[in-house]
Design a protein that fits this description.
The structure is a homodimer.
Chain A: E1 13-14, E2 38-42, E3 53-57, E4 60-61, H1 76-93, E5 99-103, H2 109-116, E6 145-157, E7 160-172, E8 175-179, E9 186-190, H3 193-212, E10 222-228, E11 239-246, E12 257-258, E13 261-266, H4 274-289, E14 295-303, E15 306-315, H5 321-338, E16 345-351, E17 354-361, E18 369-372
Parallel strand pairs in A: 3-5, 7-10, 15-16
Antiparallel strand pairs in A: 1-2, 2-3, 3-4, 5-6, 6-7, 8-9, 10-11, 11-12, 13-14, 14-15, 16-17, 17-18
Helix pairs in contact in A: 4-5
Chain lengths: 374, 374
């Protein structure tokens, strides 16, 4: 971060688009103010090319209209993978140099809730299938769609911020957890990848069609990604499996592109790979070093069957600060020796008191950055 | 961290010194093996000049003979300040380039426990004063000494590691918390700085005298630091207030040197300073930005009345990952603008899920390193 003065964009005035023409067209040159003038600036600090600068509205953070909707995902791992995954996907279409991030402002909370419910006479907008009255896991209609996430990507023109693109993430259940009676035992309906994709793609087209009718969306590109949640008990988050774009104001998405991404948790039984055996060696060295048994796991991310990222988590008990320092030094040594080169790696060491230290190596770097919290 | 191969010091054999001559002399050239041969190597990774390389014994971490003794301090803040503070103090006498860290191996657990107890007929080695039978806070004899920490500093000669110095920390109570009856209410005896120092200095001489009689210690330099604990409810750790060295096998420490270090927690009421008002501005900007009220505090470390270090802690509630990213970017902006330049600063952002992100700027650096855990 440079200690440069924050860009004085405070005078940049952005007016919310409110064009009543549902067929849209980019309304940025003719904004209609529905809410009074709003000062929009951005954070001057962009953490890396992986992150967008964020829009600052009236000196504050503009929260999502469906704030908290991702809290309903299976786990915090899924929440983080879903939100950051949609940002990564968006970078292919909206580059971080020219686009600014804004939390979703076009799908409101009531709308999103209705979409997530089952379709019924009372709720014609529901995207999940109707209740067929069955309770058995292989007979009932499961909830396919778990959460909808909107992200807005803004562009700056003549000191004004205007909508440049929208990304929509659909978080789908590979397992639908349900109760037969309220507060009863939890049952599971498994959903095949094929069925999940078929349902997700249909929903994507419905959502795009509805968004095109939403005030202010107009003809801007809409990116849609379908995310497959990992199970509740998984230590890895889920992944986006396909994506598509709706361009030129189309009410459908274009061709779907398979993403071939997956996350697996090391150690893994019944599998062999170079990465895995190297990780096993790392784990065994680390566990032998320290007298209290450490939990050593990793989330390994693959794209097109290539390992692209690794997040290592070590949990152990410490009896003092010098133990944390010595252990961290040792882990840094062994990480350099055993973990794969040329991919980003993040290692956190935790105790009952929280994160004690962490190491991080970005892509293209040969050194680990190490920090001990003391 | 370089990805260099770990120094193959595995053949370096270190034999525990066990010279029976209590007047000592550096026994490193004539080691007597009491426990069988022990392979000692070191971590090849030294995190920064602030940290010593750690001795690795038989591929494992050699724990302290009084392991866990610092867990009895008033708080985790005190524990970390006590252990890392003694390491910092040691660096003045044992430089990190030539000395290696080893957990204390000369004061065993039984010995330390006896020292920490009250002196009595049954426990003649007790360093805390005898029980005078009084229960009132201003009449009873308080426990002055809370914990004793030993750190060993090793030097390498001809591929062998030998003891080069010992540092002893005495953690003293500025407040002695006690119960009048077992499991009863907690009462406090306050101890003045003068009394604390007087008692600590006397104890230091007794400890040095005893250490000189301990097998293997010989004439090596012994650094002693007196640490004043912060209260249980303080968000800052305590500080070392004086230090002295015992050299050439002396059974006393030499002249005491005042350290004039203190830690204060920002925001502070009833005080004014440039640093404080800058911090207040930072805090106010950060709190206004985010819709959920954030707890923003800092531990400011002073040496000779100069601010030398700042640790900022921000605790807030997040409803999604993009909020964490946007908030972190904003905090990084404001930290660069409002927080003091030219000192090391560490900022952690935490939620109920633990550490979400952190920023760190070392001394001499102008950029913050930023990391988001996702």
């Amino acid at each position: 971060m440079n200690k440069k003065i924050i860009a004085t964009l405070a005078t940049a005035v952005f007016l919310l688009s409110a064009c009543s023409d549902p067929t849209g067209g980019n309304t940025s040159n003719n904004p209609v103010d529905t809410k009074g003038e709003t000062d929009k600036t951005t954070t001057s600090n962009q953490l890396s090319n992986d992150y967008y600068k964020t829009i600052v509205t009236d000196g504050g953070y503009q929260i999502s209209k469906t704030r908290g909707s991702t809290l309903g995902l299976n786990s915090n791992f899924n929440l983080k993978a879903f939100e950051t995954g949609l940002m990564s996907l968006s970078q292919v279409h909206f580059d971080t140099g020219n686009y600014y991030f804004q939390e979703g402002q076009y799908i409101d909370s009531t709308t999103a809730n209705n979409w997530l419910k089952r379709v019924s006479e009372k709720n014609p907008d529901g995207l999940n299938p109707e209740d067929n009255g069955k309770k058995e896991s292989n007979e009932r209609n499961p909830y396919y769609l778990n959460s909808v996430l909107e992200q807005d990507y803004m562009i700056k023109k003549d000191d004004k911020f205007t909508l440049g693109g929208i990304s929509i993430g659909l978080s789908m259940n590979a397992i639908d957890y349900y109760q037969k009676v309220e507060f009863g035992d939890e049952y599971k309906t498994k959903i095949s990848r094929d069925e999940l994709l078929k349902q997700g793609k249909e929903m994507a087209n419905k959502i795009v069609q509805r968004l095109r009718k939403t005030e202010g969306v107009g003809k801007i590109p809409i990116v849609v990604g379908i995310f497959e949640q990992s199970p509740k008990d998984s230590l890895a988050g889920g992944s986006f499996i396909v994506e598509a774009v709706s361009e030129n104001g189309s009410t459908k998405v274009g061709n779907w592109r398979a993403l071939n991404q997956k996350k697996v948790v090391f150690p893994l039984v019944d599998e062999t790979s170079n990465e895995l055996s190297n990780f096993e060696n790392f784990k065994s060295e680390v566990e032998n070093f320290f007298p209290n048994l450490s939990g050593v796991t990793a989330e390994a991310s693959y794209t097109d069957d290539q390992l692209v990222k690794m997040k290592v988590s070590i949990i152990t008990q410490f009896y003092g600060e010098s133990e944390i320092i010595g252990f961290t030094q040792y882990v840094a040594d062994k990480a350099a020796t055993f973990l794969p080169p040329n991919i980003p790696i993040e290692i956190t060491i935790e105790s009952i008191n929280g994160t004690e230290s962490f190491m991080s190596r970005k892509i293209g770097e040969t050194k680990f950055y190490t920090h001990i919290f003391n």
